[in-house]
Amino acid sequence: MSAEDGEAKWxxxxxxxxxxRELNAMERNQDRSYWASTAIFVTANAVAAAVFFQQESxxxxxxxxxxxxxxxxxxxxxxxxxxxxxESMWGRKAAELEKALGVDSRYAIWSDKPKGISSWYAILMxxxxxMAFWIVGTAIVAFNLMI
Length: 147
What we know:
The protein is an all-alpha fold. It has three helices and no strands. The termini are far apart.
């Protein structure tokens, strides 16, 4: 504790390794939550789509189901973006902390991203596909409702 402010100072060498473990755990947990919520939203969209197609000549019901499907997908998109932001933030902080702790670059896990396509793009493709399905499908049935 410093005498001037009465607060303890954070010590990189003492608290840094534990902070790095915390950041690692937070990122891993966010990743699991990210994919679990994606599975839930894909399932919700699939159920809504099945019900949507069961309403053959019920255009009002199809329009309502399409709007619910669109709402489900928009909610998924917002949650996915926020999860990705947290994951990215914690990864950057972990990389900075590894650097400050002097972790040899051969063993640092956060300084480099894996080569190849990010799984983030897979989620964006799924969201985009459902978004397009709900927008086009709802527009078509709403048009049929008006004529």
